[in-house]
């Protein structure tokens, strides 16, 4: 091993600025996207969920990874080992162990956020996609616990600053490979889960490609995970660990933050539409694949190019539509098609009471009564303009559920 002063050019080498720059830049980018996602779900769509909670936790953990990575750079990481004091080296190893534990936990939580998002989007009442997501959530929770225990007892760096752990610690390289390979495998499985459901959608080819590409963004992190895997051997089997571990450290930061960003991009379509970005529909309406219905029945629903049916309001229940891609179906519907749909609704979806009051003999719709929470008895349809408006809202919602192929909309108790 060289000694200080033997090779001044080698002694002067440092990767500290690069390491700090990568850590700050990627965590800043992911923080901005997560903040925009939370704004979208809380104030635009007004429908936050478990996927938003878990991605927020993952982002906090990601900030922690970046902080301890910068602390590693402060003490020793990014310089040659012969230029580092023993005290700084021990401090750097403690930060390394903390970074490994937080990184693995953040990865698990990020994957869980993807799965919660799939269950929210593909809300088909116990369908295959939702069941698969549930099984994967249970597996990830169990694997996360096992992984934390394994990483806590690796030989390097634990045994270097806790010598008593040396007799019981586990080979570091084996654990590094195991956790990284499991990370890659679960990534591929999770990002493949929604693809069969997307293929079954009745969408034009261009729109189906667009929706598929949105869900396939996560495969980009799989590529980063594979690149990071090849840096682990050099980091574990080296005589200059404080220098050779730099690439593994920054690839870990990049991989984690890219996963969080990929999870946060799909919900931002609603924000772009809200801002009136061309090609995403008119702003100001409800979006992101959700219908909001207040307890009084005066919820809103926005159809691009048509406007809102009913008055906007907050609170009440949030009903997830079957697929995020349903908005693409709406965007392709012309005003003429909508008029025909409403004409059909006028002849099919009116209740017996409405028909009796207006001189018709139209039969009740099961979907109408289900959404209204009524049973077709007298008094279910209110008199006057308010009753007409609410009937129009219900009909529009029913048409949307039928266009998506949903067997039945969510049930709600009698109002």
Structural summary, described in words:
The protein is mainly alpha-helical and 415 residues long. It has two domains: 8-266, Up-down Bundle (Rhopdopsin 7-helix transmembrane proteins), CATH 1.20.1070; 281-403, no CATH class. It is 63% helix and 3% strand. The protein has helices at residues 8-11, 16-44, 50-75, 86-121, 128-152, 158-161, 172-192, 195-199, 205-215, 219-236, 241-244, 246-264, 268-274, 326-332, 335-348, 352-357, 366-372, 384-403; strands at residues 290-293, 301-303, 307-309, 317-320. The strands form two sheets. A two-stranded antiparallel sheet has the order 1-4. A two-stranded antiparallel sheet has the order 2-3. A hairpin with a 3-residue loop joins strand 2 (301-303) and strand 3 (307-309). Helix 10 runs antiparallel to helix 12 (246-264). The chain is elongated and about 70 Å long. It starts with 7 loop residues before the first helix and ends in a 12-residue tail after the last helix. The model is unreliable at 281-336 and 344-410 (pLDDT under 50).
Structural class by SSE content: mainly alpha
Helix content: 55-70%
Parts with pLDDT < 50 across at least 5 consecutive residues = 281-336, 344-410
Instruction: Indicate the radius of gyration in whole angstroms.
Output: 27 Å
What is the CATH class designation of the largest domain?
Mainly Alpha
What is the count of DSSP helices, taking H or I runs of 4+ residues? Answer: 18
For the sheet with most strands, the description reads:
2 strands, antiparallel
Number of structural domains: 2
N-to-C CA distance = 79 Å
Q: What's the oligomerization state?
A: single chain
Q: Taking all residues together, what is the mean pLDDT?
A: 74
Beta-strand percentage range: under 5%
Order of helices and strands: HHHHHHHHHHHHHEEEEHHHHH
Shape: elongated
Strand order, biggest sheet?
1-4
Which architecture of the largest domain would the CATH scheme give at its second level? Up-down Bundle
According to CATH, what is the topology of the largest domain? Rhopdopsin 7-helix transmembrane proteins
What is the number of beta strands? 4
GO cellular component, one term: membrane
Pfam family, one: Fung_rhodopsin
Transmembrane segments: 20-40, 52-71, 91-114, 134-162, 174-197, 209-230
Family: Belongs to the SAT4 family.
């Amino acid at each position: 091993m060289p000694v200080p002063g033997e090779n001044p050019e080698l002694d002067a080498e440092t990767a500290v600025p690069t390491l700090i720059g990568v850590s700050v830049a990627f965590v800043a980018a992911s923080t901005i996207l997560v903040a925009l996602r939370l704004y979208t779900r809380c104030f635009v769509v007004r429908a936050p969920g478990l996927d938003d909670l878990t991605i927020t936790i993952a982002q906090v953990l990601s900030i922690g990874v970046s902080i301890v990575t910068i602390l590693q750079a402060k003490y020793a990481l990014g310089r040659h080992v012969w230029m580092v004091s023993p005290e700084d080296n021990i401090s750097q190893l403690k930060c390394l162990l903390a970074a490994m534990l937080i990184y693995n936990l953040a990865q698990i939580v990020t994957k869980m956020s993807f799965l919660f998002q799939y269950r929210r989007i593909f809300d088909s009442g116990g369908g295959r996609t939702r069941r698969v997501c549930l099984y994967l959530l249970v597996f990830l929770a169990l694997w996360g616990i096992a992984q934390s225990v394994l990483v806590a007892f690796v030989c390097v760096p634990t045994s270097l600053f806790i010598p008593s752990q040396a007799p019981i610690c586990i080979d570091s390289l084996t654990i590094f490979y195991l956790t990284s390979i499991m990370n890659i495998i679960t990534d591929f499985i999770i990002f493949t889960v929604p693809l069969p459901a997307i293929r079954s959608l009745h969408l034009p080819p261009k729109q189906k490609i667009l929706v598929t590409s949105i869900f396939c963004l996560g495969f980009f992190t799989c590529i980063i995970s594979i690149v990071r895997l090849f840096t682990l051997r050099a980091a574990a089997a080296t005589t200059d660990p404080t220098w050779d571990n730099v690439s593994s450290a920054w690839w870990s930061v990049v991989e984690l933050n890219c996963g969080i960003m990929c999870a946060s991009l799909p919900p931002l379509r609603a924000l772009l539409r809200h801002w009136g970005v061309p090609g995403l529909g008119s702003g100001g309406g409800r979006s992101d694949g959700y219908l909001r219905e207040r307890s009084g029945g005066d919820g809103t629903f926005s159809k691009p190019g048509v406007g809102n049916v009913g008055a906007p309001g907050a609170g009440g229940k949030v009903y997830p539509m079957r697929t995020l891609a349903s908005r693409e179906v709406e965007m392709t519907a012309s005003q003429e098609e909508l008029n025909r749909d409403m004409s059909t609704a006028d002849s099919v979806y009116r209740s017996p009471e409405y028909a009796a009051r207006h001189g018709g003999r139209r039969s009740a719709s099961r979907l109408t009564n289900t959404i209204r929470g009524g049973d077709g008895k007298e008094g279910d349809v209110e008199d006057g303009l308010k009753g007409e408006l609410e009937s129009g809202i219900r009909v529009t919602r029913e048409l949307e559920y039928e266009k998506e192929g949903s067997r039945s909309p969510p049930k709600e108790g009698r109002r």
